[in-house]
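LAB NOTEBOOK - FOLDING QUEUE
OPERATOR: T.R.
BATCH SIZE: 2
PURPOSE: Compare the predicted structure-token outputs for two unrelated chains run back to back under identical settings.
PRIORITY: normal
REVIEWER: second-year student, initials M.K.

ITEM 1
FIELD SEQUENCE / FIELD STRUCTURE:
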Amino acid sequence: MNLTLNSQHSNHTIQKAALFFAVSLAIAGLLFVNSKLSAEQLARVSSVLLTIRMLQSNLIGLLLAIDVAISTIVLLCLVQKNFQQKSYLNFIAPLPFLLLFLTTLPLGNRYKYHALFYENWMWLCAAWIPALGLLVCLCAWALQSRGAALQRLGERLERAWGWMLSAETQRADRALLAGLCVIAFSAPLVFNQVLLGGIPHIHDSISQYFQAKIFARGHLYAPAPAHPEFFERVYIMMDQGRWYSIFPPGFALLLSIGIRMGAPALVNPLLTAFAVPLIFALALRVTRSAAIARAAAALFTLSPFSMMMGAGYMNHPACLVWSTLFFLAYLSAFEANNARRMTALAAAAGFCFGMATLTRPVTALAFLIVALVWWALQWRGGWRNRALCLAAFIAGGLPCGAFQFYYNHATTGSALLSPYQEQYNDIPLGFGETGWGPEDVLPGKPNVVHHTVLQGLSNSLCNLNGLNYWLFGWPIPSLTLAAALFLPGMRRTRFDWFCLAAALSQSASYSLFFYQDYCFGPRFLYETMPFWLILSARGASETISLVSGSGAARRSAVRALSAIALAFCFVMAFSTTWVERLADLDDEYWGAREQAYQTLKNGLHEKNALVFVEYDYDYYAVFPLLDPWLKSGWIVALDFSPDRNQALIREYPGWPVYYLHLDPKAPRYTTVTILEKYPYPTP
């Protein structure tokens, strides 16, 4: 059957998309010109703007507002013929769409850094909307002028890959998940070993790696060193003769297993691989569509965000696994056909929530709020079942809570005082003044930060803006498909709202935290990935259905065009975003230089040695080699002066003493290090 298309409607679609593209391109051009003006040119522009009573910053805001307004109007016009559902949700749905659309613009950067594009990748923010408009133009043109060819291609793809589109689970799903798990495990492991040198680079991960070594010895803390000034590190506490990490112990417990087995680098790649079938199962649970579940699992595997986070030693992959297990058990309890199964699933959900709390408590609590609201609104059982389910949930989480209290008491001396609170005398959440600091803070010297609502909002916008880049790395915003699901006329389910609430709840919770960064990506939103992936797969499915209409021929053409557009986006991602991000994952990522670590590994042949390290960030790189008990192995210490170092040298009589420092003959900013044996070099 030949493909028949409404030529007049297609022409209108192309015209509207062309308007979308042209307006966005013009605004992006103005933003580019504005950013490239010199100081003298800016002064002249400002003087002109002042004469018309318009400051330059206000002009930029006005341009962005016009861009968002016109682009939104055009997008709504593209789907206005499908605005048929008469429901109050049709009026609510555009709100999350507008919110997600706003995250394509670096508005948070403007408030926080007084610059729209303070990092190179943020220039994509100005190009995303024109690129999206251009993609819509090209797709509409292809359907109009190449519809028959696309139909034939779509029919071939359906014959070859038809099982991927099936809503029912298939035998081939096991092979698909196995292949995705292999990729999800091997890629982060390769990145860890080849690009990051196999060592933790981030202060948080260094601290938790240290705690994992303590757990691996069967202890909750190590005795504090006699000369603590040589070993002081940020996020590692020395108090009352105890030495331990300030972070919750959940991830350190998992990492200690890897340390006991001699392969700590395998922990996060294994967790990343384990997340693949969990995301598949969660997507299948909430959508009842195996096709959506396959797409969500594949998108997770091919995401630069998941791969690069899995390459490090951060606790986010562990929290993602525990929180996904929590939601799986929690949602399954709703459908249990008997009380025994319901209570067992509720207890399992409680345990998984407890482990998530032991890993990242703010994330776990943000998810719990959504779960409790959903439980109150959706539960169909009687009060007896509700009480039984709640009791089982609490019972399942009790062991984790008991361990946290015991760990607090063992380290800080109070079951209700966590190490995190002890170091900074506060919980750095909320607005107003809090005991914390934007720079590295030594114990007992907290800075004070004044956090405002606008700063929290800008943090959330920055995180979502980063997610548009890191989630898929496409030349269009990564949240485009998720946002499309909330356009008027789209068919949405109650679970779509559940996924959106879970994703935005965590973003909102971290607006209470003054700090925001892009460590392996917008890390505070990493655990929301399953929900964004499900929404993206649902958005793609509904968009294809909306554009396809009821004709089988047009549906084949649209699916073929979707496959081509998706392949193009991934090719562009692998050739641009992946290259840029992999180049960023070098041996000096976040300052901890792997060169210093390799110098010790290759230069020291003694089993026991005392090593003084000159440069602070070199010390971060070699600190994981330290035995917390300081009894054997390589005792790495900060270097002060020959006289002051003698106090530590006397603690290890007869041990060889080395000095790790920058090569004085090498050019500035070199990564070359020298390992010299005492006597200490004299000026």
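ITEM 2
FIELD SEQUENCE / FIELD STRUCTURE:
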Amino acid sequence: MQPSPEKDLLERRLARANSARQQAEQLLEEKSLALYEEAQRREQAVVDLRESEERYRLLVQLSPDAILIESAGEIVYANPAACRMFIGCAKESGWPPGKDIVSLATPDYRTRAQVAMALLDDGETVISGEEQVRGHDGRVIDVAVTRIAFGYRGKASVQMVARDISHRKQLENQLLDQATHDALTRLPNRTLLRERLAAEVATARRHGHAVWVVFIDLDRFKFINDSLGHGVGDMVLKLVADRLSAATGPKDTVARLGGDEFVLVVPDRNHDADPSRFLDCVMAQLVRPMEVAGRTLSLTSSVGMSRFPDDSSVLEDLVEKADIAMYRAKQQGRNNWQLFTAAMQEELQDRVQVETALHTALAHNELFLHFQPQFDGNGSNVVGVEALLRWRHPKLGNIVPDRFIPLAEENGLIVPIGAWVLRTACMQCKAWQESGFPTLRLAVNLSPRQFAQADFVDSVAAVLRDSGLAARWLTLELTENLVMADVEATIVKLGELKALGIQLSIDDFGTGYSGLSYLKRFPIDELKIDRSFVRDIAADGESAAIVRTILSLGRNLNLRVIAEGVETVEQMEYLQDNGCDELQGYFFSRPLPALECRSFLGVGELTAQHAADLARRAMDLGLDAEAIGS
């Protein structure tokens, strides 16, 4: 049976209604689920926000940094760290009303804090820097500060975070102090000296006054270190630092460059315009005896001064020129002061030129020897020769020994040069002996540095062995100062040289130490009278008396005595009348190159007589002593 059209229509309508109902139910279910999920999310966001706020609150509460909030010109919140820092307790309730952030800064930093707050009001969001604040106990605290503009409870506010960096600043200051101050004396070092000098020179330029730079070097300080130890030396340096500080004003600079060198920077406006009075005062402070480690020490110093703007306007030049003046004070015998002059710098440049050339003189065969004959007491027979070092530079010409030997002694070149002199002289003497002068004796001067070498005795033995010269024909000449520097060690080394068979002579006798009680302990064979006494024996009673005393001393100790620097008949006759054993000087012969010396030796006695005749003629004609041997 076919369904009726009405029924079919109703069924379709019913199906559509069911479908619409199902869709509505599904949509309602989906919407309900979405609303539920949104509610869940909102609830979780509230929880998260509450937890975040709690975490922030805990962080702020537990933070070691001081955190404060200022609103409407008053601090409205301070965490426990801020309370501990500024009011001495951890309770926010104890925070005093009416305080603002700027009031926490020390007076020196208050302006900086005010500027920072003004910038935040003008639109800046974050400003950071380092400041100082005053703690609850009055202590000044170094802090790293960050200020942040933000809204707090609906109002424009500023949050400040202050971290205590006092320990870091203390370490930085310690490092800075170590970098700019001498560890021993706590005086400014070279770095800070330059800064202070630059500042004083800049001020002097603006105001038209002078600045003095004083270079001080303690005389023979090395002896204190070597003999008494570095501990005593350090105590001496501290005392010197104190005395220099006492001799200067509070605005002057006392610096230590290192070792025993000090520099003063003194604006003359702080003192009498006459630098000599100031320098005398400084030296008077230093020369006073010092009580150190149970000892009384006397110390002297060599002092040099340069002046701005008279001597230089360059910082490095001022210190260098003061150093040059100090070196001149050393040359003048120490324990004095000198003001810089242009002539000093010229001499220093000459010294540097000579010293530079000296380093290659030996390698370039520029050094050579002259030999001055030595006669017996009668003045008739040559008994020996003294080897004398000479230097001819291709550009500087002949350089006198007094100009280069002290330099070689200072820089240590005297050791290889002295070794070359000894070897060359021994080989030359041996050659002359083999040529017909078998009893010729050779005298060679020794330097203190050469003698101090640990292997010196072995090196002398090697030279004798290599040259073939018998030890009894070699005389080594040592100065009084050399042998008296370390008596016990010197006695041992001289004994070792005597064991080789070498003759030993004290050169320049009478000009050094007067420790004659030690003389009998030295295994020496000869005393050599210094030319300064021989020169004046005819006119100076004191020189004549010294010469007689030395001759008497030599006879009593069974020592041979030789006089150097004999230039006149009167000198020769005086020495002969008083029993001098040997004579040497221009009266008999000038120092000669090796070839001329061999010719001189070849006619020996006749040449000596001829020289005496020439000397008398020269005196009659009024010629100088240089003409005698020419």
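REVIEWER COMMENT (ITEM 2): The chain has 21 helices and 22 strands.
FOLLOW-UP: none requested
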